[in-house]
Write a structure and sequence with these properties.
6-stranded parallel β-sheet; UDP N-Acetylglucosamine Acyltransferase, domain 1; binds coenzyme A; alpha/beta; Rossmann fold; 8-stranded mixed β-sheet; 219 residues; 3 helices; 14% helix
Length: 219
């Protein structure tokens, strides 16, 4: 019998449920629990898996489960990268959650703490950084360069040779034509059709996508 790999999921919200589904469909993985920074969740059950605590229980988990690793399942890009940094500082290895029904080209490069949800397609020579979410049914065409901490939301489609810089968010169902650059921390709204480069930290939405002044950043 091959040994099973223990994994703890950081984040017991919506993205945590997505990652739990993914890990439960991968043979050889045992999910030992959730961690979450929200103390109100500690001790509760989410999809029949207990929320064990927060960063404070990490040293105990490392002792109790040899070979344990973590996936950070938080939709907010900044929070996901911050929690990943804290886990790494405590010596918790970070691994990927790749759904068996996602397609990843053999020529693609995938970083660590990356989630690829069901139905996602990652094509030839794509580079995906660390702490990235490629959500359900997203399509990332050939030679995209996806920076650390990016979130490509469900059903978004990026044509060939798009660069998405660190921390950017591409909303659900958005379309980005080829050869464009989405700047650092930029937000592309749901359903947008992006025809031009997007400035860092800007928010664009609509068809065709134009800058908007949002009241809040939405994930
Ligand atoms: C773009 C976005 C981040 C802006 O969020 P917000 O700060 O709450 O923006 P507001 O609701 O204040 O909207 C500001 C204006 O932009 C418009 N707008 C917002 N999102 C839009 C969108 N996706 N497409 C077209 N127009 C949009 C609003 O209608 C509003 O226009 P108005 O001033 O004429 O009324 C958000 O609407 C969005 O699209 N988020 C993506 C969510 C998503 O993909 N989630 C998936 C998670 S897995």
């Amino acid at each position: 019998m091959p040994e099973s790999k223990p994994i703890v999921i950081y984040g017991a919200g919506g993205q945590g449920r997505v990652v739990l589904d993914i890990l439960r469909s991968v043979p050889g993985i045992v999910t030992v629990g959730f961690l979450d920074s929200d103390e109100n969740l500690h001790g509760s059950m989410v999809d029949n898996l207990r929320v064990l605590g927060d960063m404070r229980v990490v040293p105990g988990l490392l002792t109790e489960y040899p070979g344990i690793a973590s996936v950070v399942a938080i939709g907010d890009n900044r929070a996901r990268m911050d929690i990943a940094r804290q886990l790494s500082e405590l010596g918790m290895p970070l691994v990927n959650a790749i759904h068996p029904r996602a397609f990843i080209s053999p020529s693609a490069h995938i970083g660590r703490n990356v989630t690829v949800a069901s139905g996602a397609i990652i094509c030839a020579h794509v580079r995906i950084g660390d702490h990235v979410i490629v959500n359900t049914g997203a399509i990332i065409e050939h030679e995209n360069n996806i920076g650390d901490g990016v979130h490509i939301a469900p059903g978004a489609k990026l044509a060939g040779r798009v660069t998405v810089d660190r921390g950017a968010f591409v909303g659900i169902g958005a379309v980005v034509i080829g050869n464009l650059r989405i700047g650092t921390d930029a937000v592309v709204g749901a359903g947008a059709v992006v025809l031009h480069d997007v400035e860092p930290s800007s928010v664009v939405a609509g068809v065709p996508a134009r800058p908007i002044q949002p009241k809040a950043k939405g994930g």
